[in-house]
Amino acid sequence: MNERAKITAKNKHLDILQGIALLGDPARNKGTAFTLEERSRYGLEGLLPNSVETIDRQVERVLGHLEAKPTDLERYVYLSGLSDRNETLFYRAVMSDPARFIPILYDPTVAYACLTFGHIYRRARGMYISRHMKGRIAEVLRNWPQQDIRFICVSTGGRILGLGDIGANGMGIPIGKLQLYTACAAVPPTSLLPVLLDIGTTNEVLRADPLYLGLREPPPSDQELDELTDEFVQAVQEVFPDCCIHFEDWKGTDAIRMLKRYGDKVLCYNDDIQGTASVALAGLITALQIVDAPLTDQRILFLGAGSAGIGIAGLIAAAIQEKGLSQDEARRRISMFDIDGLLEPSRSDLSEDQKVYAHKAAPSKDLVQTIEALKPTVLIGVSTKGGAFTQQVVEAMSRLNERPIIFALSNPTEKAECSAEQAYTWSKGKALFAAGVQFPDVTVNGKTFHPGQANNFYIFPAVGLATYVARPRRITDACFIAAAQACADQVGPELRAKGMLFPSQDSILEQEVTTAVRVAEFMFDQGLAQVERPRDIRAWIEGQLYKPQY
């Protein structure tokens, strides 16, 4: 549907709603921007101040309100309320300066919003599917008013950021993720549905909180969860047949199991595994461009061997294979270290996914000792253990490498394995550093470094946009490798000279569209797309972008 047709359809819906009901509909409400003729037609006379404003004047007021808020959490609450009142104005404000609003709508502020979700709750957004709805999930999904849902972001709240299991409080993540689909890549918001699969929580503090909004019971067995998830996935195919399921923040073992179960069967992906892997690979590609070294020569050590680590390792191994090495050769270049030490064959506690990275080596529970033995060129932290990259760790990496590549990807901020200041200071400015959160610039010996933020928002909105337009049958790991390469290719020499490993966030929409073009091209090349290939893919995509205007 082109933009003119969308506006016509929206106006038809306006004719159905009148008066207060129209002002209460966030998708159709214009607030003070309703014209005098519209106020007369829709029974709005007397319900609004006399002044008729442009949307840009309304944005000016929104920005003033935000300036008066004392914290980003208060700004998050305000923006949530704005989205509930006037969705178009919300996106107009957010898309006017995504670099400013992403840290408020998502990481790191969303972590604090999730911790207090039941306390700051204002209005239901998205859908809450309870385990007690088993047997009638399709019936429940039909309660959603929109029929052409193209993306569902679904979480159990089982592993939110670095916060662990927070159950129904995790609904802030699907809401925020889908808002970034629109804010960063202009995917139409009417096609997006956040879902919280409420299976209970292991978090006893939350279960005792009188304002907690979820089921106050422990999660089910794996078998029961698998049965519930299978019904949910099949219900989505039935109710929303063109929908892509975006799995988000499930418990690590559940996340890996679900991706294996459904990845080749339905249109879906797991952002914690594939999106995180893609953005880490993008940063690694850029870092290797700076040091002028091939990916196939790297030795990579992970601190953390959960779903994120396994996902990143798997995608890096696949990217190495694309360079001509075998799977075994690629995997041998990757090692892992977790809370119980180095993954090696004598360990009896490893999962099948971990065993492929358990190479012959002496057992070790000392990270510095392991670094000195394995001599990694790249150190990636996905441990959620704040401060795990100590001065001794960074100095060991710096002794072994002229430009050590150090990624501290855990979030929120206090979970980061080290800060940018620590990485640059302890390495004497040698480190090529990225983190999962945005750290401020750091000056060492008169040189200012601009730390990169290895945040999935560089990847998943673009993959979402490509999926929205190309309607692929499946989303493969190779699609995420294409996205990583496209992201890295947008970091020019000037940015690389500053130590930046990711594009500037100032023009995020243009970057996402560029990445989406590359991913869509790949989908067409691989025969994944289910629509006819246009002659000009970029122009075709740009013609389908959501524009926040009345």
Topology of helices and strands:
Blueprint: H1 3-16, H2 19-23, H3 36-41, H4 55-68, H5 72-85, H6 87-96, H7 98-105, H8 109-115, H9 117-120, E1 127-130, H10 137-141, E2 151-155, H11 172-185, E3 192-198, H12 204-208, H13 222-239, E4 244-247, H14 252-262, E5 268-270, H15 271-291, E6 300-303, H16 307-322, H17 327-332, E7 334-338, E8 341-342, H18 352-355, H19 367-374, E9 378-381, H20 391-400, E10 405-408, H21 420-426, E11 432-435, E12 442-444, E13 447-449, E14 452-453, H22 460-470, H23 477-488, H24 493-497, H25 508-525, H26 537-542
Parallel strand pairs: 1-3, 2-3, 2-4, 4-5, 6-7, 6-9, 9-10, 10-11, 11-14
Antiparallel strand pairs: 7-8, 12-13
Helix pairs in contact: 4-6, 5-6, 5-8, 11-22, 15-16, 15-23, 19-20, 22-25, 23-25
Task: Describe the 3D structure.
This protein is of the alpha/beta class and 550 residues long. The chain folds into 4 domains: 1-53, Hemocyanin, N-terminal domain; 103-266, Rossmann fold (3-Layer(aba) Sandwich), CATH 3.40.50.10380; 274-454, Rossmann fold (3-Layer(aba) Sandwich), CATH 3.40.50.720; 458-542, Malic enzyme, N-terminal domain (Rossmann fold, 3-Layer(aba) Sandwich), CATH 3.40.50. It is built from 26 helices and 14 strands. It has helices at residues 3-16, 19-23, 36-41, 55-68, 72-85, 87-96, 98-105, 109-115, 117-120, 137-141, 172-185, 204-208, 222-239, 252-262, 271-291, 307-322, 327-332, 352-355, 367-374, 391-400, 420-426, 460-470, 477-488, 493-497, 508-525, 537-542, and strands at residues 127-130, 151-155, 192-198, 244-247, 268-270, 300-303, 334-338, 341-342, 378-381, 405-408, 432-435, 442-444, 447-449, 452-453. The strands form 3 sheets. It has a 7-stranded mixed β-sheet, sandwiched between helices. Helix 20 (391-400) links the parallel strand 9 and strand 10 (405-408). The longest helix is centred in the middle third of the chain and has 21 residues, at 271-291. The chain starts with a helix and ends in an 8-residue tail after the last helix. The model has no long low-confidence stretch (mean pLDDT 94).
